[in-house]
């Protein structure tokens, strides 16, 4: 059994193919850089914002984009392909940079 569990109006149900659900209920998440009110639409843009916040790029794993901040133990790991950049990656960035990023519905 595969799919997505949806909680709506106090009822939980399994949606086998969420792409077939009503498009009005499916919203795409985007990462917002709050100081400039700018939506992040590429890794180049994200890397510039993270660098300005003190994050340094690691080049050890060719399959991932990784960023580390010297002043902390935090590590941000992202898939190399921006099309695989999902909301879980966005929330990871938000948790580690609370004052600079937000995840919003588009």
Number of strands: 8
Shape: elongated
How many H/I helical runs? 2
Distance between the termini: 29 Å
Helix proportion range: 10-25%
Major β-sheet strand ordering: 4-3-8
Query: Over the alpha carbons, how many angstroms does the gyration radius reach?
Result: 16 Å
SSE arrangement, N to C: EEEEHEEEHE
Q: Which blocks of ≥5 consecutive residues have pLDDT under 50? A: none
Structural class: alpha+beta
Q: Give the DSSP E fraction (strand runs of 2 or more residues).
A: 25-35%
Largest sheet: 3 strands, antiparallel
Average of the residue pLDDT scores? 88
Task: Write up what this structure looks like.
Strand 1 (4-8) and strand 2 (11-15) form a beta hairpin. By secondary structure, the chain is α+β, with helices and mostly antiparallel strands. Helices cover 19% and strands 35% of the residues. This is Flowering-promoting factor 1-like protein 1. Belongs to the FPF1 family. InterPro entries: FPF1 (IPR039274).
Task: Give a quick set of tags describing it.
106 residues; alpha+beta; 3-stranded antiparallel beta sheet; 19% helix; elongated
Brief rundown of the structure:
With 106 residues, the protein is an alpha+beta fold. The chain has helices at residues 43-52, 87-96, and strands spanning 4-8, 11-15, 29-33, 38-39, 55-58, 64-69, 75-79, 101-105. This is Flowering-promoting factor 1-like protein 1.
């Amino acid at each position: 059994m595969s799919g997505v569990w949806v909680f709506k109006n106090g009822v939980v149900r399994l949606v086998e193919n969420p792409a077939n659900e009503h498009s009005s209920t499916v919203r795409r998440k985007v990462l917002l850089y709050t100081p400039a009110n700018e939506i992040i639409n590429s890794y180049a843009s994200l890397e510039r914002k993270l660098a300005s916040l003190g994050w340094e790029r690691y080049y050890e794993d060719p399959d991932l984009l990784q960023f580390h901040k010297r002043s902390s133990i935090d590590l941000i790991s992202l898939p190399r392909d921006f099309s695989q950049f999902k909301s879980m990656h966005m929330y990871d960035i938000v948790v580690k940079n609370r004052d600079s990023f937000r995840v919003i519905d588009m």
